[in-house]
Fold these 2 entries.
Entry 1:
Amino acid sequence: MIMDNIKFKQCPKCETWFSREDILESLNIIPLGMTVDEEDSTLSFFYFNHKRPTCDTPFTIPVRRFEPFITEPIPSKINFGNPSCEGHCTSMEDLMVCQQECLYAPFRRFLLKLIDMKNNIKTLKRFIEQ
């Protein structure tokens, strides 16, 4: 997996700068969900929360910023709103997996893997600290 440490996103509250590596690896940055634009993928976002004792602030990053980390083919068509679409992308809180042939499905699967990975690391840390 390609990692970079170029700081590109700033927390809107505490003004800490983050790289994609920080977003993917820090347990202080919690992935929340995603929203999509049915016509323009540049207007589709992952939502995160910067969780620290002095900061509990949500922020967004365009899903396309994570394209280098997608390990599967990304379809060119947007299936959002079509009859076969299951509508998962209509709600940021919907964290069900999408199996559609849609541009957004690989980004959604990536987000779910990220959420799962961070939850597993937290569980492991709690186990080790016991």
Note: The mean pLDDT is 89.
Entry 2:
Amino acid sequence: MIVHTNLSFSLNYLIYMQNIFLNYQHGNEENFNPVFPFCNTSCNNPLNTENFKEKWGNSLEVLINKRINSQFEPLLENLHDSIFINLFKNDDERDKYLLESYKSFLAWWEPDGFGAQLLLEMFLEKIDLYTEIQKIIKEHQVSVTHDKLKIDVIYDDIVLTSPILKLGYVIVSYKELFHFKLTNSLSEKVTNQIMYALN
């Protein structure tokens, strides 16, 4: 079996936008723990908050379906791809909002090659997912029908939609991988996603 582990630029940008939305939506609630990146919630909100969850979920679905069999990275090909532009209010400033969010993400993700992307890559090098996947197959007697598994790693959990279940494809957060590193065991959620992906 072949396992490919990737850090998708565009997928992590979507998580970045999810977290901005969560801060705008819940930033003033007493029990809410801010998530990265935190934005000043008293400032003008550029997001399409009326149906952000729906637009975000649609963007995620389109991106995943294209990434399953390729290294599709729309943010690197066409910044104004409709996958992302719909996350913002439909007004004259829309393109500006998208460009600013992109630059902000880029400054954190890969500033001169020494950003979050590099740190996640270094962390991934210390994790043996292949052996753990083989263990899951053996323990759960998974009948493997997909001999290739693509794993996209994201810096934070997806919270705006339910877990993604796709054949031959899994999304795993850094938090889940860190838990695996500490306990030497993947969570039940990730294990179920892997079993589904391989069937």
Note: The mean pLDDT is 89.
